[in-house]
TrEMBL record:
This is Camphor resistance protein CrcB. Coiled coil: none annotated. Transmembrane segments: none annotated. Residues 41-103 form the DUF302 domain. It comes from the Bacteria. InterPro entries: DUF302 (IPR005180), TT1751-like_sf (IPR035923).
């Protein structure tokens, strides 16, 4: 994958179900793979509690300290982008999407060694599986 400056390293893929159902599926996949779900932030729910409207939008923050810690030991600034995050959201037409930072973008952004990045490359497969 090459890094396109126009997308700022963000990968966005279409989902076959609603944003909430996609987030539910992603959470189940995260847990099934033995990863830690650190947070699930319901931006649209928070907006509603503040009296505002927002299309469905949820951010899942997850990872594995065994994979992330060596990266943070090598280049502490990578902690700005770890744990991994995947955003499940719906557009104005009600179509659901998943967005996440491309591992190649993170590698380039923080000057990380490609071998250290291998554990993070699974985010693409995880997002693809959640989107089906």
């Amino acid at each position: 994958m090459s890094i396109d400056p126009a997308d700022n390293g963000v990968v966005t893929i279409a989902s076959a179900q609603s944003a909430v159902a996609t987030a539910d599926k992603l959470e189940a996949l995260i847990r099934a793979r033995g990863l830690i779900l650190f947070a699930r932030i319901d931006f649209s729910g928070d907006a509603a509690r503040a009296g505002l409207t927002m299309r469905p939008s949820q951010l899942l923050v997850f990872g594995n300290p065994q994979a992330g810690t060596p990266l943070m030991q090598a280049v502490p600034s990578v902690a700005l982008d770890l744990p991994l995050k995947v955003l499940s959201w719906e557009d104005a037409d009600g179509r659901a999407w998943l967005s996440y930072n491309a591992p190649d973008y993170l590698r380039a952004r923080h000057g990380l060694d490609a071998d250290l990045m291998k554990p993070l490359s699974g985010v693409a497969a995880l997002a693809e599986a959640a989107a089906r």
